[in-house]
Amino acid sequence: MSIVVKNVVKEFGQQKALKHVSFSISTGEIVGFLGPNGAGKSTMMKIITGLLPQTQGEVEVCGINSRTYSNDFRSKIGYLAEHNPLYLDMYVKEYLLMVAELYNLPAKKTRVEEMIELTGLTLEQHKKIGTLSKGYRQRVGLAQALIHDPEVLILDEPTTGLDPNQILEIRDLIKRIGKEKTVMLSTHIMQEVEAICERVIILNRGELVVDHPSTDLSKLQKGGDSFVFVEFDKTPNIEAIKKIVGIKTVERISNNELELTASEDVRGHLFDYAVNNNLKILTMNRNAQNLESVFHGLTK
Fold this sequence. Notes:
six-stranded mixed sheet, Alpha-Beta Plaits, single chain, alpha/beta, elongated, Rossmann fold, 10 helices, 2 domains, four-stranded antiparallel sheet
């Protein structure tokens, strides 16, 4: 296992940020690490990297205990923090050479050139970091996280603040990196998890609520319910609709618009209801639960 977390607790005074969290991540997995703000994601990531000590429990990365925070331990991990800390007055190539010096890498210039090419920084390498766009700064952050060729990559909100084109570029880069390394990725963008990750771990209020081997969570909640939006030409009788077989909840959006959750396909029943009650259906959409809706249901 690349990462093993055993019964980790983190307390800040009287507040428990993490409550007996346990999971493991195998070599070569790309795992989405999710949770609402304040769930404990960044705290857990800092504990895994050794930047923050846990109150209780044990963490191992590639078989090395995080409490040692030895050179061997640090060499196994590449970390991109949520707020990417960079020296803005340094040039890109100069900064990466400095990082390579800190790791005491052999053939430093060659390794820096490899990272510049891998992360698409060739045209930007002689610019000051402070002049770069947010997307290119994230590339510099990824380059510094990868420069020592770590086995585990920890990425905390790597695409925050990027434009759509930059997001796609960074996602593609992460997927290429993930073919050779274990990647733990924190994000609030559910489409990003579905596009990149093979597995999902969800924290809520410091507790692990989901550890699922794929991004298809549709069966985890409400038996795989679907959502139906329906708009009638006149105001329907909500109580009558609630009695339709398969409908579990009904929420009125406006006088004529309803949002339903259903345990089966109820569109035919809704058409029958409309015909029997002299109503017309103007719009009807049915969507099976996706990662975003399941996440909301588990953490709201």
